[in-house]
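Escalated from tier 1: zinc ion holo job.
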Amino acid sequence: MTDWDPKPEQVTGDARLVGDTEPVGLGDTEDVFVHGDAVGGDLHVADGEYVFTDVPTESEGVTPPTVDRAVTGEEDGYVEDVADDVVLRGVEDVFVHHDGANALRAGGAEQVYHDGDAQPTKLPQSYEVTLSGWNHTREVRDPRDGVAILGATNELTVRDLAHDATVYVVGWGNEVHLEGRDAEASVFFVGRDNTVHVGPYLSATAAAESGFDNEIDRAPIPASAVIQTSKEEAHADATFGRHKLTWQEPVDDEQWCPNCGSEADAVIRRRQRDALFLFGVPIRTYDDGGESFECEHCTRHLGEVSLTESERRDALR
Ligand SMILES: [Zn+2]
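Tier 2 regenerated the structure:
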């Protein structure tokens, strides 16, 4: 136990700071998550391990204020709404949301991770979709502005994303699945071991990473999205007589498109057959038509294809 003066209030489960108007202490918890706009004064990390923060640290040498009240919990700590300073002691990792405190004094931390290269264009604490806590699952459709997560091992699925969006992730072990079309996601990571899975028709970039081992995992475009007519479909009606058939088939081992030269997920081969059929079997071929290639970059058909639910699941795997 960390020395607190006065004796701290012990709560069961998570410890939450909500509504304090005087300096308050929080300690002897595992991870501490600091919400956006949570601390009206300074946040002091007097003794902690890693601090992952979207609030830059201020010059040190500042003594933490004495507190009249301190809280300790059994599990994690959540700092939600305190009008004055907050002092953290004896905590493990600390995760600080954008605008989480007026100032951050992290002199007592083992290590601080902060990447100030980019800022979300709109405050993440104002997004309509925010998932906070531990182990929650949620599904949303085409959110405006973006989505935010604060906590650990949460899973958020965004379906039908059709607008550019910000994905703001604070904590560790969280997973975001983005599905949709023609939209771009800008991802901010504050923490570690978070993953954003991105569907094949979306793009995503990491705007800033205050932490480590975070990942954006983009699913490849399936060949079925570029194929208009499969070989089976082309041959379905060719039972008797002469037929000129065209179809496309996937080329699985090609990373580069022989037609346009791009690096591609979905290279396909266009085939033609002009033949005489008897009971569905080609008995005489007039022209095999050679072959040509296409991919998702040079095809004119990608926009017309919509995936079935199971193809979408496959594509996201
Ligand atoms: Zn191509």
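The two ends are 45 Å apart (CA to CA).
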